[in-house]
Amino acid sequence: MRVALFIPCYVDAFFPEVGIATLELLERFGLDVTYPLDQTCCGQPMANSGCHADAAGAEKLFVKNFAGFDYIVGPSGSCVHHVRDHFIAIPQTPDVTAVRGRTFELVEFLHDIVKVKAFPWASFPHKVGLHNGCSTLRALREASTTEIVEPRFSKPMDLLSTVKHIEFVVPQRPDECCGFGGTFSVYEEPVSAKMGQDKVSDHARAGAEYIVSADMSCLMHQKGCAERLGLPVKFIHIAQILNGAHE
Amino acid sequence: MKRIDHAEGSSTFIKAKDHIDFHDKRLWDLRKKRDRESEAMPEWEELRSLASAIKEHTLTHLADYLEEFERNATKNGATVHWARDAAEHNAIVHTILESKSARTLVKSKSMLTDECDMRRFLEQRGIKVIETDLGERIQQLDDEPPSHIVLPAVHKLRTDVARVFADTLGTDPANHDVHYLAESQRMTTRPDFLTADAGMTGANFAVAETGSVVVCTNEGNADLSVHLPKLYIASIGIEKMLPRIEHLGVFIRMLSRSALGSPITQLTSHFRAPRPGTEMHIVLVDNGRAERLGMEDFWYSLKCIRCGACMNTCPVYRRSGGLSYGATYSGPIGVIIDPTFNLRKYSALPFASTLNGSCTSVCPVKINIHEQIYKWREVIALRNQLPMAKREAMRMAGKVLASPRLYRAAAGAAGTGVEHLPRFMMYSRLNAWGKQREVPKAPPATFRQWYLANRPKKGKGPR
What we know:
The structure holds two protein chains of two kinds.
Chain A (H helix, E strand, L loop, with lengths): L1 E4 L3 H6 L1 H13 L3 E3 L9 H5 L3 H15 L4 E4 L2 H10 L7 H9 E3 H8 L13 E5 L2 H6 L15 H6 L6 E3 L14 H4 L1 H18 L3 E4 L2 H14 L4 E4 H5 L5
Parallel strand pairs in A: 1-2, 1-3, 3-4, 5-6, 5-7, 7-8
Helix pairs in contact in A: 11-12
Chain B lengths: L5 H10 L1 H23 L4 H17 L1 H15 L2 E5 L2 H14 L4 E4 L3 H5 L2 H6 L4 E4 L2 H8 L16 H12 L8 H18 L2 E4 L3 E3 L4 E6 L3 H7 L3 E7 L3 E2 L2 H16 L6 E5 L7 E7 L3 H5 L15 H5 L1 H4 L12 H11 L16 H5 L6 H14 L5 H14 L2 H8 L11 H4 L20 H8 L9
Parallel strand pairs in B: 1-10, 2-3, 2-4, 4-7, 5-8, 7-10
Antiparallel strand pairs in B: 5-6, 6-9
Helix pairs in contact in B: 2-12, 3-12, 9-10, 16-18
């Protein structure tokens, strides 16, 4: 199984430790993982702003980098959602449709494809609150939501609950958007910041030492809010916990 | 026409801390009550699919059902009028009122008459219009449009209402007891019901099979508006049609549960025919709906039953207030309807969303709201309605991110902090990120640099 590692631009630039944890975690399961060196971004920031023509270059490059792999795995729900559901700026060649169909977010890849049942090396003796990014939740459907009447399920929780000594706390509004929203975070700064403050305060009130998520962009925003508010909450990507991080 | 600046409007709202926290909590509580009601019904998702299918069927056969409704309403003794747009609607209503020399009109809440700006039109022609829904009355007295389609004054605290009533009804400004305020309003409105020349309602549903108008309320004001005066006018958007009375149950079961988390409204009134000696007029209004029905990506918005569930669940709406949208319809449903009225004026609204999709999940008629928001952004960009700075930022970002070389220069550049933020995040509103948030610190090396150092033999693609 040849797996390509898709590291979104902001993870590459700001959170290399998340990329490293993702790579090491995949390698622990004996997968042949390659990081195509010419990757940049999936095109989401432009497309979400309505500028599909400006996203076409990034999308074309993405397909060039990732065509031919069995799976493309990235630690970011919204980027995977963009590739899978919104790669519409470029002609739908066989390579494009193959890449779209083979791109997975890390949690769903581990849960559904590799079917991982345990992370024997992982121990995290802390109280954590789980944050599911909205794309992960409502587009990739990695967990049930409180809005839909359906049997409850959660792929990230299935994985995290196998980690030793981990404790979970549940905020009052578990599915509420944290207000990152890509360019929304700067073009709608007042609402974005208020949403972020409310989100981290909700987790802090529930007693979370850490907020964990498969979406580092949400965490980047929440971390910025928590630090400014002086809240003692810490932030960690799910890949880091599953890879055995202790702090 | 000037573009509505939602971010600016929300910033004003957010500064009033008491207001925003109350607003957010009040609406979130409704969302939670809605969850409890829907979870108590195992068939909830089935009902949503059914409601969506009934609406889609009706909308795709709308002309037939409208004509059937007209035939049956006429048979019942009502007079049916057709209005192409807001101006025609207002003129028709005015003509009906003039024909009976009516000088006062009591009305229950109707978003359609707000959409048509009817109150101002009639008042300019010497007709006194009295809103009788408590929330709508507060907004009328304060000379503000409604901020929510179900709860028109939800952005106000009781102290605000006390101020408005003190200024306009002469109540005690220091007394903001809700019972006192509601009773004061009631005492001033009751005489109007008894003396009004005409009454008016909107409609939640119009049933083609029976020619009847269905109005769902909690205050009883619609029934008083209809039953006391000798003239009754119902203004109805053409999308309110339902084929058969048997379809109504699907919607009645979901309307109030979605809106307020209550099983049903206090009153579900079927107005079918004029009482002896009175007249009943029905104005069927298009005002852009037929055009919207022809829009391939956006016609689904016509399924809306105006329950407001999307507004209650919307984290952006709850934290910006309905008035910040500068339009008759606010929140998620407003964001996808408003641009059909005026693309330029409302071109910023589809960006007042994180695309989180909660609105779509709660919508009882399964409107794909967040997907339409996404689509509107594309339309707005294609029609050159993006602000120049944003347009330029996206063009630059697109160039950089299409080129591994330019991207590496930007991502791996020396320096710390803000220089590292991708350009598209930094370009427009000067360092908006850092106003209330810390900027992420740049690591010593990018992931790619780490990878080259630690996996030296890797890095080639499969081809």
